Amino acid sequence: MLTDVEIAQSAKMKPIKEIAQKVGLDEDDLELYGKYKAKISLEAITKLKNNKDGKLILVTAINPTPAGEGKTTTMIGLSQALNKLGKKSVVAMREPSLGPCFGVKGGAAGGGYAQVVPMEDINLHFTGDIHAITTANNLIAAMLDNSIQQGNPLDIDTRQIVWKRVVDLNDRALRHIVVGLGGKVNGVPREDGFDISVASEVMAILCLATSLEDLKQRAGRMIVAYNHAGEPVTVDDIKATGAVTLLLKDAIKPNLVQTLDHTPVFVHGGPFANIAHGCNSVMATNLAMKLGDYAITEAGFGADLGAEKFLDIKCRQAGLNPDAVVIVATVRALKMHGGVAKKDLSEENLDALRKGIENLEKHIENIAKYNLPSVVAINAFPTDTEAELQLLNEICQAKGVDVAISKVWAKGADGGIELAEKLLEVLETKEAHFSPIYDLDLSIAEKIKTIAKEIYGADDVTFTKKVFNKMKKYEAQGLGNLPICVAKTQYSLSDDPTLLGRPSGFVVEINDLIPNTGAGFLVAISGDIMRMPGLPKVPAAVNMDIDEKGKIVGLF
C-alpha cells in the first residue's frame, strides 16, 4: 500500500493556469509561484465581487482522538466527488503550520487519494505566508521594545506588555523567557515569551480581513501593551502599522493549488482552533463561493472549537450564511471516546461505540442550535463492522441526521459519491436559517457562559480574580461587545483533556482574557491550554529526510 507522500509524489499535476481556467480565472489574475502554485491578485478579487455566491458548506468533526478522524481528507474527497457528479465545487482550507508538521501530526493536506498537491510544498514553506506573519509579528515586538529603550515616550508599563514574539515551531523552551539582558545597550530587561506563529493576532487579522485597507486598519488597532495609566497602546501608537502592512502585502493574497484529480483549492491562513479562531481566510472563502457553485471549507478540531468560532466569529464578521454542515467521525474514534484503548480499536465493541456516539450526538445538537442542517460522514476503516455501522446509522437517524460512509482516502472522488449525494439531498430538502449562538450585547461573562453551557455542556463557568478585573476594564474601554474566542483543549468538550465522550457535571475555568482588537474578539484562556506547543518524545521530524535527488520521505 502506498503512503500518502508516495501517492502525492506520483500525482500528475496540471499547470496551475489550467486549474484557474476551470473556474474562470485567466493568467492576468494569477501571480505564479512556479508551475503549480499561484496567488490570486487583489485586482481579480475586486473584479469578482459581483459574482453570485455559491452554497457554503462547513466540514467539522467530533473531538479529535489519537485514532484519527480525517476531517481534511473528507473535505477534499467531498469536493472531488461533487465535481465528479457534474457540480462546480471549490475548496477553501487552511495552510498547515510547521509546528505540528514536525511535531505530532505530520502533514495536513489530506490523505490517500483525497489530497491537495504539491503536498510537500503546502506542508513546508509554501508561498511564505506564515513566514511573513511571523516577521510582521516580531517587527511589532522589536519596535515595542525599542520604544521603551528610546526613553519610553508612550509611558509603557513593562509589566503590562501583552504582545509576544512568535515562531512557527513547537518550542516549549521559549514559552517563558527574559529579554533585554546584558547591559543598558541591549534593551530593558523584562519577562517575555513566544507563541506559535499561527496563534498570533497577525494571523487572525490576515484571515478576517476583506481587503488590504481592512488589514491595515485591523493591524493599527491591535493592542500591544498598556501604559502606567492603564490605557491601551496600539500598533498605531508605536508607528508600526505601515511597515506591518507592507510585510503582509503578498501574504494577504489567497493561494491556488489543486487536488489529485485537479479540483481547485484555495489554501490560505492557518490559525489553530484550540488557541485561535481556527478558520481559513475570509478572502479565500469568498473566492471559493464566487468561483464555485459549492464552496467546501473547514474549521479546526471538533465542532465545539472550530465550528463554533467559524459560526460565531467568522460568519458574523464576514456576513457569511452557511447552507449546511458535514460532521466527520470514525467508528474507531467514537469507540475511543467510549473508553476503548487504541490497541483494541480493531475489535467490535458495540457498548463502547454507543457510549462514544454521545460525543457525536452533542456536536449534532450544537449545529442544530445554529439552525443549520447537517450530515454525518463516517470516514471508513477496514475494521468497521456491519453491526457497528448499523448502530451508528440508527442513532443518527433518530437524531434526524443522515449518515454517509466516506471512502475517499482509498478511492478518491468515487469514495465520496454517497456523501456528496446525501449532502445535495440535504441542500435541496432542508433550509438553513443561520443565527449565532449568542448576542453581542450580552456581557463578556454571559457570552462565555453561553458558549460553555450551550456548546460544551458545562454546568457553570468560574473566573479568576484577574479575569474579573479584566472584564471590568475591557467593558469600560468599550470592548464588551466583541465576540469571544475560547482557547481550550481540543480533546474534550470540557476544559479537561482526559474527559472524553460527553462529560457532564463539569465547570469551565477561565484564567485569562486577552484583547484581540484588530481581529475583533476577546480570547478567553481556559484550563491549562498553551499557545506554544511542545514537541513529543519522538517528533515527526525524526523520520523526515531528503535524498540526493531531492525526493522527500517521512513527511506524512
Description:
- By secondary structure, the chain is an alpha/beta fold.
- It is built from 19 helices and 25 strands.
- Strands 1, 2, 3, 4, 5, 6, 14, 15, 16, 17, 18 and 19 form a twelve-stranded mixed sheet that branches. The chain has a four-stranded mixed sheet with strand order 20-22-23-21.
- A hairpin with a 5-residue loop joins strand 24 and strand 25.
- Helix 7 packs antiparallel against helix 10 and helix 14 runs parallel beside helix 15.
- The longest helix is centred in the first third of the chain and has 21 residues, at 129-149.
Key structural traits:
alpha/beta, 12-stranded mixed beta sheet, 4-stranded mixed beta sheet
- The coarse overall form would be globular
Enumerate how many helices there are, as a single number: 19
Major beta sheet summary: 12 strands, mixed
Relative strand content: 15-25%
Distance between the termini: 14 Å
Radius of gyration: 23 Å
Tell me roughly what share of residues is in helical segments. Answer: 25-40%
Structural class: alpha/beta
Instruction: Indicate the mean pLDDT.
Output: 94
Oligomer: single chain
Instruction: Tell me how many strands there are.
Output: 25
Contiguous low-pLDDT stretches (5 residues minimum) are: none
List the helices and strands and how they pair.
Blueprint: H1 4-9, H2 16-22, E1 30-32, E2 38-40, H3 42-47, E3 55-61, H4 71-84, E4 89-93, H5 98-102, E5 110-111, E6 114-117, H6 119-123, H7 129-149, E7 156-161, E8 165-167, E9 177-179, E10 190-192, E11 194-196, H8 201-208, H9 212-221, E12 223-227, E13 232-234, H10 241-247, E14 255-259, E15 264-267, H11 282-291, E16 294-298, H12 303-318, E17 324-329, H13 331-337, H14 350-369, E18 374-379, H15 386-398, E19 402-406, H16 408-411, H17 417-429, H18 444-456, E20 460-463, H19 465-476, E21 484-487, E22 507-516, E23 521-526, E24 545-546, E25 552-553
Parallel strand pairs: 3-16, 3-17, 4-15, 4-16, 8-11, 17-18, 18-19, 20-22, 21-23
Antiparallel strand pairs: 1-2, 2-14, 5-6, 6-14, 7-12, 9-10, 12-13, 14-15, 22-23, 24-25
Helix pairs in contact: 4-17, 7-8, 7-10, 9-10, 13-14, 14-15
